[in-house]
Specification:
CATH architecture of the domain at 1-42: 3-Layer(aba) Sandwich
CATH topology of the domain at 1-42: YefM-like fold
Radius of gyration: 24 Å
Order of helices and strands: EHHEE
Helix content: 10-25%
Structural class: alpha+beta
Distance between the termini: 53 Å
Largest sheet: 3 strands, mixed
């Protein structure tokens, strides 16, 4: 997480906020080296990336049957 001083943030606020909104990163604003504020872009609840996890999982065999050859006690 990036940090900047409160005086730098005051002088460059519009550009910093635009950069944070575009990149999605977060920022900690400090005063005399101590954290003063946490600035983060708002995440839209409805923004879903369809297919983001496509190809990350592999199904091998039957997904309903128990794993292994022995019977489970819960199946009895």
């Amino acid at each position: 997480m990036d940090t900047c001083s409160v005086s730098y943030f005051k002088n460059h606020a519009l550009r910093i906020l635009a950069d944070l909104a575009e990149s999605g990163k977060e920022l900690v604003v400090t005063r005399r080296g101590k954290p003063l504020a946490h600035v983060a872009p708002i995440r839209q609840a409805g923004s879903v990336e369809l297919g983001k996890l496509s190809g990350t999982m592999k199904i091998e065999g039957d997904i309903v049957e128990p794993l292994g050859s022995e019977e489970w006690k819960a199946c009895r």
